[in-house]
Amino acid sequence: MKIRNQFLKAIPLAVLLTCFSTVTGAQQTSTQDLPTLSPPLHAALYPEVMCAGCIVPHWDRGYLLHVEFDRDRAVVTMYDRVGKKVLEGRMVPGDAVKGSVRAAGATRAGGILAIGGGIMTDGSSQRYIVKSDPAGRVVQSVRIADFYPRLVCEATDSTVWVVGYETNYRHDPNYRDVSDEEKNVLRHYSFEKGLLGSFVSLGSISKSRNVSMQVARPDKTFLRCRKDHVAVLLWASGEYIEIDTSTEKLSRWKVALP
User: Fold this and answer.
1) Which of 36, 127, 163, 235 has the smallest C-beta neighbourhood within 10 Å, fewest atoms?
2) 197: burial class by Cβ within 10 Å (0-12, 13-18, 19+)?
3) In a 3-state reduction of DSSP, which class is residue 31?
């Protein structure tokens, strides 16, 4: 695909989180006086993987996941560490007439996890999370209402964490009039029970009215699910956040930007 824009600094999150996990001596404090993590050990430009629309490939659990925007926006292709194609799936719920994928991740079982939206058989427009088996067949899905998803990962208990924002924030300058819970950017979902929890408010990330757009940019936010915690890197506020998945305790650090 012809590259139209070469402008983003894509930083592999796995490297960043490895760097952060090795930092010692940082203690959690209030958001007004956060401890600071050192800059990442490595940063690199990858303009050759960019394309029209600022599409960035998704790295998760040692796999590269590519959303096939050039042929079918609902298809996700998975490649292994050496670039071999290992899986392909059309990631839409069974009751979707038309759909597209915004981002994807890998499941612990070797399937595909995807977030997107589409038109359903009842004529409604819905956003959703879908999960495939290792053969690429969609086996689970859950609707996520007006939440606009940008990143997704699967936890060890098979629940799903998503970074995104309420769709009305993009156009409504008075988003601060809604409750803190409604304007959180990190959500926890179960395919069986739906929304389980909501974390990290827009106001705590940035005072800018364009904060939802900053969260939406693929070079500004990173998400990973680990064994006992979920990690989020927010360049919009220069923060690294961890949530203990057993206690839901949230810890924050400032990041020394490179």
Assistant:
1) 36
2) middle
3) helix
